[in-house]
Design goal:
The complex is a heterodimer.
Chain A: E1 10-19, E2 22-32, E3 37-41, H1 48-56, E4 63-68, E5 71-72, E6 83-86, H2 98-108, H3 113-126, H4 142-155, E7 160-164, H5 172-189, E8 192-197, H6 200-206, E9 209-214, E10 217-222, H7 224-229, H8 234-239, E11 246-252, E12 257-260, E13 263-266, E14 275-279, E15 284-300, E16 304-311, E17 314-321, E18 331-336, E19 342-344, E20 351-352
Parallel strand pairs in A: 3-8, 3-9, 6-7, 7-8
Antiparallel strand pairs in A: 1-2, 1-4, 4-5, 9-10, 11-12, 11-14, 12-13, 14-19, 15-16, 15-18, 16-17, 19-20
Helix pairs in contact in A: 2-3, 2-4, 3-4
Chain B: H1 2-8, H2 11-45, H3 49-53, H4 66-73, H5 77-108, H6 114-123, H7 129-143, H8 149-173, H9 177-185, H10 190-219, H11 222-227, H12 234-240, H13 247-267, H14 269-275
Helix pairs in contact in B: 2-13, 4-13, 5-8, 5-10, 5-12, 8-10, 8-14, 9-10, 10-13
The chains are: A alpha+beta, B mainly alpha.
Chain lengths: ~350, ~280
C-alpha cells in the first residue's frame, strides 16, 4: 500500500468559520507540505481544533476551500478524504476488542480477513500493544487506549493523519515518552500529519513547522527555531518560551538608535516611536555596561538561575548561570546579546526588522 | 455560656437519633404501603378458592393452584390475556420505532424549537385520558379501529412515547459524539456509524425502554375499557367482571397483572433512573 501512496499536500484556502455571530476563524491560508509534521499551536479557544475539524470534515467551513493531494475535499464526507483522526478522548469503541477497534476501518473497506489481521498485527507491534489485542477498552489504561487510537488511525494507511491534543489526557511522564514515540512512528509512516496542541514543548519538540494561532488567525507558520528566535508578532514572543520574552519600551534616540531604560542601543531605522524592545531571558549576561536591574526573586533551577527583576519599573526575567551569587535586592547590570534583540511595533504588534 | 454549652451537648445525639428513627419508620411505612398489598395478593392467589372466600384470611400461602386454575378456565379470560400481550407487544414496537429516532434527534441535532419539542412531549402526559376518550372512541368507530387490539395499541403508544423519547434521549446523550465521529473518519456513513457503533452500545437501554412501554400498555385500563368491547385486554376484562366475579378470581387476575409489570420494572430500574438524569453509567 505504501508504494501507491499519493502525494498528500494540504492546502487551506481562505477558510473562515462562523458559529452564529461568533467568528471562530478568519480567512485562514495555509499549505502543509507532503509528509510534513505541522503543529497547530495556540491557547484554548483560538480556533486550532475548529481548523483541524474542517480539514477532517467533521465541521464545514463557512467560506473557503480545503484541498488534499491536489483534490478539493471540502464537500466530501470524512471517510472520502483519505484522512484518519486521533481524538483527544481516544474514542476507542467500548463494545469491540482492541483487535476489532484497530481493524474497524479495514473491515469497513471490506478487506479480506488475512489482510486485516496482517495490518492490525503490524501496527499493533509498531505501537507495542500486541499483547492487548483481545482486550476491551474498559480493561486498558489511558496510555494504552491512546496507543490503540493511534494504531487504529495508522492501520488505515491514510494520506493525512490528524491529531487533536492526543497526549493531553496522559500524565507528564507518559506524555514525554509518547511524544518521542509518536514522532518516530509518524516519520516512519511517511504520512502528512496535522497535530493540534496547546503545549508549546510538545509543539517545539515534534513539529517540522508550527502554526501559532491566536483569535482565529494564524499569526506565524514557521519552523520551531524560527518561531522561537524570530517571533513574527508580540503574541508569539510572549506565548512561546518559558519564561517568555522580556519587553521594554524603547524611545527613538536619533538615526537607528533607541533609548531603552536609559541605555542607547542600536536598532532598526523606523519612522514611529516608541517601539518595543524584546529579549529572551537567556540572552543576557551580567556585564559592566547594560540594563540596570533590581533583583526581586531568585529561583535556583539546578542547571541555571531564574532571576526576576525590575528594570525601569517593568518586570524583567533573566536566566543566569547557577554559579552566580545573586540575592534579593541586588542590583545587576545585564547586557543583552545584540544579535538576539528583537523589535516590535506596539501599534501593529508585528515584528520590525 | 459554659452552662449552656454543657446543657446543649447531650441534646445533639438525641435529636440525631430522633431524626434517624423518623427516617427509618418513614422507609418502613413506605415499603409496607407497597409491599403488604402485593404480599396479600400473592398469599390469596396461591391459596385454594375455599380458603380465600372464608374468614379469617390466611397469612401464609398454601401453594394451592386452584385459584389460578379457575382463572385460566374462566370464559374469555385467556382471550383477554392474549389481547393484553398483543396490545402491549405492538405498543412496545411502535413506541420504540417512533421514540428512539426522536430521542436520537434530540440528543444529536440542534434545531429550532428543540426545547419546546421536549416540553410538548411531556405535555402529552398532561392531557387527562377521560377527556380524550369520547372523541377518540367516535373517531375510532368512524375509521373502523374501534374494538381492535391495533387501535388500542395506537392509544397506548401515544402514552408510552414520552417515556421512550426521554429514556432514549438520555441513552444517546450518554454516548460520546467522538465515538460516532471516529466511526465517520473510519469509513462509516451516518447510518453505518449508527448501526455499527451506537446501536450495540444502546441496545440494553433500548430493550429497557421497550419493556417499559410494554408495562405501560399492560397496566392501562381506562382507554382499554372505553375503546374495546369484544376484544378486551386483561385489565378491562377484570374491571368489567369486578362486581360479578368471585373473590379468588379477582386475586388471581390481579396477581397475573402485577407480576409481569413488577418483574419488568425491576429488570429495567437502572434505566428508569437514567431517564430522570440521576445515573447513567
Amino acid at each position: 500500500m505504501k508504494g501507491t501512496r499519493e502525494m498528500a499536500e494540504i492546502q487551506i484556502k481562505n477558510v473562515a468559520k462562523k458559529f452564529g455571530a461568533y467568528q471562530a476563524l478568519h480567512d485562514i491560508n495555509l499549505t502543509i507540505a507532503d509528509q510534513e509534521f505541522m503543529v497547530l499551536l495556540g491557547a484554548s479557544g483560538c480556533g486550532k481544533t475548529t481548523l483541524l475539524r474542517i480539514i477532517c470534515g467533521l465541521e464545514t467551513a463557512t467560506e473557503g476551500e480545503v484541498w488534499i493531494g491536489g483534490r478539493r475535499v471540502d464537500h466530501l464526507a470524512p471517510k472520502d478524504r483519505g484522512i484518519a483522526m486521533v481524538f483527544q478522548n481516544y474514542a476507542v469503541f467500548p463494545h469491540l476488542t482492541v483487535f476489532e477497534n484497530i481493524g474497524f476501518g479495514l473491515r469497513m473497506q471490506k478487506l479480506p480477513d488475512d489482510e486485516v489481521r496482517h495490518r492490525v498485527e503490524r501496527v499493533a507491534s509498531l505501537m507495542h500493544i500486541e499483547m492487548l489485542l483481545k482486550r476491551y477498552s474498559g480493561e486498558l489504561s489511558g496510555g494504552q487506549r491512546q496507543r490503540v487510537a493511534v494504531a487504529r488511525a495508522l492501520a488505515m494507511e491514510p494520506d493525512v493523519i490528524l491529531m487533536d491534543e492526543p497526549l493531553s489526557n496522559l500524565d507528564a511522564l507518559l506524555r514525554m515518552e509518547m511524544r518521542a514515540e509518536l514522532k518516530g512512528v509518524l516519520a516512519e509512516s511517511k504520512t502528512t500529519a496535522v497535530y493540534v496542541t496547546h503545549d508549546q514543548v510538545e509543539a517545539m519538540s515534534m513539529a517540522d513547522r508550527i502554526s501559532v494561532m491566536h483569535q482565529g488567525e494564524i499569526v506565524q507558520a514557521a519552523s520551531p527555531i524560527e518561531v522561537y528566535r524570530n517571533p513574527a508578532a508580540e503574541f508569539v514572543a510572549s506565548f512561546i518560551g518559558n519564561p517568555p520574552m522580556n519587553f521594554l519600551r524603547a524611545e527613538a534616540a536619533g538615526d537607528g538608535k533607541w533609548s531603552v531604560a536609559g541605555n542607547v542601543i542600536d536598532g532598526p531605522r523606523y519612522g514611529k516611536s516608541p517601539l518595543q524592545f524584546a529579549i529572551r531571558p537567556e540572552d543576557m549576561q551580567p556585564a559592566g555596561d547594560g540594563l540596570e536591574a533590581k533583583v526581586k526573586i531568585v529561583e535556583p533551577l539546578g542547571a541555571h538561575l531564574l532571576v526576576t527583576c525590575e528594570v525601569n519599573g517593568t518586570l524583567f526575567r533573566a536566566v543566569l548561570d547557577s554559579d552566580m551569587e545573586v540575592k534579593r535586592g541586588d542590583m545587576l547590570t545585564l547586557a543583552p546579546q545584540t544579535d538576539r534583540v528583537r523589535w516590535f511595533d506596539p501599534e501593529t504588534t508585528l515584528a520590525v526588522a | 455560656m459554659t452552662d449552656a454549652t454543657v446543657a446543649e451537648a447531650p441534646a445533639a445525639p438525641s435529636t440525631r437519633s430522633a431524626g434517624r428513627f423518623l427516617y427509618i419508620s418513614g422507609v418502613v411505612l413506605l415499603c409496607a404501603w407497597v409491599l403488604v398489598p402485593i404480599y396479600f395478593l400473592l398469599v390469596n392467589t396461591l391459596s385454594s378458592p375455599n380458603t380465600v372466600n372464608s374468614f379469617p384470611k390466611p397469612l401464609f400461602p398454601e401453594f394451592d393452584f386452584g385459584s389460578l386454575a379457575f382463572f385460566a378456565q374462566f370464559a374469555g379470560m385467556l382471550t383477554a390475556l392474549k389481547n393484553s400481550v398483543l396490545t402491549a407487544g405492538m405498543t412496545m414496537i411502535m413506541s420504540i420505532l417512533i421514540g428512539a429516532p426522536a430521542g436520537y434527534a434530540l440528543s444529536r441535532f440542534d434545531f429550532r424549537g428543540k426545547e419546546l419539542f421536549r416540553l410538548l412531549i411531556l405535555l402529552t402526559r398532561a392531557f387527562p385520558l377521560p377527556l380524550l376518550a369520547l372523541p377518540l372512541a367516535v373517531m375510532f368507530i368512524q375509521t373502523g379501529l374501534d374494538d381492535t387490539t391495533f387501535g388500542l395499541a395506537l392509544v397506548h403508544t401515544t402514552l408510552a412515547i414520552p417515556f421512550a423519547v426521554l429514556i432514549t434521549f438520555s441513552l444517546f446523550s450518554g454516548i460520546p459524539l467522538e465515538l460516532e465521529e471516529a466511526a465517520w473518519t473510519l469509513g462509516c456513513t451516518r447510518l453505518t456509524a449508527f448501526t455499527k457503533v451506537v446501536l450495540p452500545l444502546i441496545l440494553p437501554g433500548i430493550t429497557a425502554s421497550a419493556i417499559f412501554a410494554f408495562v405501560i400498555s399492560w397496566n392501562e385500563v381506562f382507554a382499554a375499557a372505553v375503546l374495546t368491547i369484544e376484544n378486551r385486554t386483561l385489565t378491562a376484562f377484570l374491571l368489567q367482571n369486578l362486581d360479578t366475579s368471585p373473590l379468588h378470581l379477582k386475586f388471581a387476575g390481579g396477581f397475573i397483572l402485577v407480576v409481569p409489570a413488577l418483574i419488568f420494572i425491576f429488570a429495567v430500574r437502572k434505566y428508569l433512573f437514567a431517564m430522570w438524569g440521576i445515573a447513567n453509567r
